[in-house]
Write a structure and sequence with these properties.
The complex is a heterodimer of chains A (about 325) and B (about 270). Chain A is an alpha/beta fold. Chain A has helices at about 20-30, 65-70, 95-100, 115-125, 130-145, 150, 160-170, 190-205, 220-225, 240-250, 265-275, 295-305, 320-330; strands at about 5-15, 35-50, 55, 80-85, 100-105, 180, 210-215, 225-230, 235-240, 250-260, 280, 285-290, 310-315. Chain A contains 13 helices and 13 strands. The radius of gyration of chain A is 23 Å and the shape is globular. In chain B, a hairpin with a 2-residue loop joins strand 1 (about 55) and strand 2. Classes of the chains: A alpha/beta (about 325), B mainly alpha (about 270). The interface of A and B includes residues 15, 72, 102 and 122 of A.
C-alpha cells in the first residue's frame, strides 16, 4: 500500500491577541501588542495509505480542522513536514487541489441558485475533466444513488441531506486521490446518515480513494473506518485499528434515566446500587456508563425499575468525548 | 483548454443573475429615484449660477454624463469587497482556495457573467434611452470603439482596487466600514458623482494623477467626445493601461503577501 499522506512531527502555532475585559479593555486592545502563542497542533506524525478510510476524531477545538487545513495546503505548518502525494501542499496549493476533494458538512461548494448539474459542469471545466471521464463517473453515481431528480433541482431548494449527498458527489467528481470529509453527517436523520455512509463506502471501494473523515458521531466511525486517529488539545492520543479500541472499551453504552426527586441524591443512590459502573448526573439526566460485557443494559434497567420510579429513559452509544475521557483516565495500551 | 475554464464561469454567472430577475427591477427603480434627485440638484445648481455653461459643461452635458455614469456604475460595480468579506467571515473562502485556480482569477470570472448580463439589462437600455431623449447628443462614431476598450480597462482597474480593499478584510475581518469608505472615495474621485470638470483646480490636478478617474471619467470622456484628437485618445487609454497594469500587479502581490501572513498566523 503506497503512502499518499506523510505527516512528520508537525506543529502549528497561532498568535492570538490577549483580549482584556470591558469597554476600557477593548479600547486598550486596539493598540495592544500583547500576543500569546497557542499551539493548535503539537508534534503530530502519521502516514496514510492509498485507499484507507481514516476516522479523525477529537472534541471541538482539538486541532482537527487545523490539521486538515494543513493537509489541504490552506495553512502552513510552523514546524515539521507534510507531504501529500509526495508534494508539499502549501507550496503547490493549486496542484495539490487537483488531487484532493473536500466536503465541509456545514457549508456547500455548490452554486446556490442553480440546478446541481450546472455546478457539476462548472467543476468539470475547473478540474478539466474529460467528457469520457465525466460520463463514467456520472454512470457510477447513478448506479449508487438516485441522482436523476437531484441533478435538475436548484441547490437552494434541496434538503440538508440531499445537499450533503450532492456535495460529496461533487468532491469525488474529478476522481481525487484523497477526499477530506469534515463532519459530513452533521444534522442529518438516521436514514440519511446511513445513505451517506453507504455512498462514502462505495466510492472508496470503487475508486480506491483515500478518505479522511472527521466526525463526532461514533456511528460514522463504526460504519466506515478501519483505522482511527484521536487527537485532543493538539496532541495525538491514539492511532490504531478500531477493533483495538473496541476491544479496549468492551461494549460500553450510556443509559440515561430520569427519576422523581432530587437529581443529586438520586445519582448517589444509583451509584451505591451499581458500584461496578460510573454514574454521572446533569440537570436532566442521570447517566450510567454500562459495560455490556459485564451486565446487559436491559438487566441494569430492570434492576433500577424495581427500586425507582423511572419517568423517562434513553440509550446512547459511547461518544467521542467519553472515549477520550477514558483514554486519559486509563490509557490505551 | 484554459479559456474554456474561465468562460464556464461567465456562463454560470449569467445564469445565476438571470435567477434574480426581481433584483434587476429593484435596481432600475432605485436608479430612477437617484437620477430624479440628480436632475433637481443640478437644475438648482445651474439656476443659481446664472449662466448656461458652468465649467465648460451645459446642463444637459452634465446630466447625460451623470446618467451614463450611474448606468456604468450599475454594470461595473461587482461588490467584490462584500463577497470577499463575507466569504472570509464565514470561512467559505477555504473552499475557493482549494480550487485548482488562482483565487483572484476565480473571483473575477465568477463575476464576468453578471457584467455581461448587467450590460444588457441596465447599461444598454439607459444608453439607448439617453440617446433617443437627447436627440443624438451621444455621437455614434469611432468613439464607441474607444469607449469599449476603455470600459474593459476600467473594469480591470476597478476590480484590482476592489480586490485590494477586499484583501484588507483578511486582516480586519469587518467589511461594512471599509466597503463604504472605498465606495465613497472611488465614486467621488472617479468623477462618478460630480464631473471632474467641476473640481477646484488643485484638486483636479491631483485627481487626474490618481487611478480612480480612469474608472468612470476616462470611458465617459471618450464616449461623449465625437471628434477627439487622436493624441487625447491615446493619452487617456495609455493612462488607463498604466493604471491597469500597476493596480493588477499591486493587488496580486498584496494578496500573495497577505495570504502568506494568514496561512502562517491563522485566519
Amino acid at each position: 500500500m503506497s503512502k499518499v499522506i506523510e505527516i512528520k512531527n508537525v506543529t502549528k502555532e497561532f498568535k492570538v491577541l490577549n483580549r482584556r475585559e470591558g469597554l476600557k479593555g477593548s479600547l486598550k486592545d486596539l493598540f495592544s501588542r500583547d500576543y500569546k502563542i497557542v499551539r493548535a497542533v503539537d508534534d503530530i506524525s502519521m502516514d496514510i495509505g492509498q485507499g484507507e478510510i481514516v476516522g479523525y476524531l477529537g472534541p471541538n477545538g482539538a486541532g482537527k480542522s487545523t490539521t486538515i487545513k494543513m493537509m489541504t495546503g490552506v495553512l502552513e505548518p510552523t514546524s515539521g513536514e507534510i507531504l501529500v502525494n509526495g508534494n508539499s501542499p502549501y507550496k503547490n496549493r493549486s496542484r495539490n487541489a487537483q488531487e484532493i476533494g473536500v466536503v465541509f458538512g456545514q457549508r456547500s461548494q455548490l452554486w446556490w441558485a442553480l440546478p446541481l448539474v450546472e455546478s457539476f459542469k462548472l467543476l468539470k471545466d475547473i478540474y478539466q475533466i474529460s467528457d469520457k471521464q465525466y460520463d463514467g463517473i456520472m454512470e457510477l453515481y447513478s448506479s449508487l444513488v438516485d441522482i436523476e431528480p437531484l441533478l435538475h433541482k436548484p441547490v437552494r431548494q434541496m434538503s440538508l441531506g440531499q445537499r450533503t449527498l450532492s456535495d460529496i458527489l461533487a468532491a469525488f467528481l474529478h476522481d481525487p486521490k484523497i477526499v477530506f470529509l469534515d463532519e459530513p453527517t452533521i444534522g442529518l436523520d438516521v436514514a440519511m446518515k446511513a445513505k451517506i455512509r453507504t455512498l462514502i463506502h462505495a466510492l472508496n471501494k470503487e475508486r480506491n480513494t483515500t478518505v479522511i473523515l472527521t466526525t463526532h458521531d461514533m456511528g460514522d466511525v463504526d460504519a466506515l473506518c478501519r483505522r482511527i486517529v484521536i487527537i485532543d488539545k493538539g496532541k495525538m492520543l491514539y492511532d490504531n485499528d478500531i477493533e483495538h479500541l473496541k476491544g479496549f472499551f468492551g461494549s460500553y453504552r450510556t443509559l440515561k434515566i430520569r427519576l422523581d426527586g432530587d437529581m443529586k441524591t438520586n445519582a448517589e443512590t444509583v451509584q451505591k446500587e451499581l458500584p461496578q459502573f460510573s454514574v454521572d448526573s446533569d440537570d436532566e439526566w442521570i447517566s450510567v456508563l454500562v459495560d455490556e460485557d459485564k451486565e446487559k443494559v436491559i438487566d441494569v434497567l430492570a434492576g433500577l425499575q424495581k427500586k425507582h420510579n423511572i419517568r423517562d429513559m434513553k440509550l446512547e452509544e459511547i461518544s467521542t468525548e467519553e472515549v477520550i475521557k477514558k483514554i486519559y483516565e486509563e490509557g490505551v495500551e | 483548454m484554459k479559456l474554456k475554464k474561465y468562460l464556464s464561469f461567465t456562463r454560470i454567472g449569467m445564469m445565476e443573475s438571470l435567477q434574480f430577475r426581481l433584483a434587476t427591477v429593484v435596481i432600475v427603480i432605485g436608479n430612477l429615484l437617484y437620477l430624479t434627485i440628480v436632475f433637481f440638484l443640478w437644475k438648482a445648481i445651474y439656476a443659481s449660477s446664472g449662466t448656461d455653461v458652468v465649467n465648460g459643461m451645459t446642463f444637459s452635458d452634465t446630466l447625460i454624463y451623470l446618467v451614463l455614469a450611474t448606468a456604468l456604475f450599475n454594470f461595473m460595480e461587482m461588490y467584490t469587497v462584500w463577497e470577499m468579506g463575507r466569504s472570509i467571515q464565514s470561512g467559505k473562502i477555504v473552499l475557493d482556495l482549494l480550487k485548482p485556480m488562482d483565487y483572484r482569477k476565480l473571483l473575477f470570472w465568477s463575476y464576468s457573467g453578471s457584467f455581461v448580463m448587467n450590460f444588457f439589462t441596465t447599461f444598454l437600455p439607459t444608453f439607448i434611452i439617453v440617446g433617443i431623449v437627447t436627440g443624438g447628443a451621444i455621437p455614434l462614431k469611432l468613439n464607441l470603439l474607444y469607449f469599449v476598450i476603455s470600459v474593459v480597462l476600467a473594469i480591470m482597474i476597478n476590480y484590482s482596487i476592489d480586490f485590494i480593499v477586499g484583501t484588507i478584510c483578511l486582516f480586519t475581518e469587518s467589511i461594512w466600514g471599509i466597503n463604504i469608505m472605498k465606495q465613497v472615495i472611488v465614486l467621488l474621485l472617479s468623477g462618478a458623482t460630480i464631473p471632474i470638470a467641476f473640481f477646484p483646480e488643485p484638486m483636479k490636478t491631483i485627481v487626474l494623477y490618481m487611478p480612480f478617474q480612469s474608472i468612470y471619467n476616462a470611458p465617459l470622456t471618450l464616449l461623449l467626445d465625437g471628434s477627439p484628437d487622436m493624441e487625447d485618445v491615446l493619452m487617456i487609454l495609455g493612462t488607463q493601461l498604466f493604471w491597469c497594469v500597476t493596480m493588477t500587479v499591486i493587488s496580486k502581490l498584496f494578496w500573495k503577501a497577505s495570504l502568506r501572513q494568514i496561512t502562517v498566523n491563522g485566519g
